[in-house]
Known about the structure:
alpha/beta, 7-stranded mixed beta sheet, 7 strands
Amino acid sequence: MRDEHTERWQQRYRESPPDQMPWHREEPAQTLVEAVKRGVLPKGVTVDLGCGTGTDLMYLAQQGYWVIGVDIALEPLRFARERLRRAGLDVPLIQADARFLPFRDSSIDLICDSGCFHSFDPEIRPMYARSVARVLKPGGLLFMREFHHDQPQPPQGGPHRLRLEAFFEVFTPSFRFVSVGEAYYPDLPPDRRRLHLLRLQKQRN
């Protein structure tokens, strides 16, 4: 399905190379590294949702996760595929919209979302929530890192800065909020320094 949301992302990658995008990183997100080291992200069938150029994807694969990369745009997946090839990693990559994930019901153990959800406008966020709830196993985990409302919204638009209520509105009652926290990175630009960190577990009943 192609709509305004899809076209917006395709246009962004037509304008700039994947490794020139502001969200491209050469190192995995510290929040992800810390969560893996703490053992709070179960190993199993894992989806890196909005995987982009594959930095977090590579880290998860190197840590023993059976991971699949998903992104709405083709260009970052091509970039990620080449990085994975150079690293000697065999990781499936799929071009797909998070609202319409192409996996069987209750087939995924863990979904990692680093800035995918905050790209959705309010009216289509429930579609994301239904999609991830459908594919996660009962008890499966959704690990989210999204922009916090306590920072400026860029004048040109871009990812939403979210209040906690935005998560409760769409993920209740299908999910249990296991942990709700924040991360702060003073070295980043002012509009990107604070993140919501959430672990949500799909209800078992």
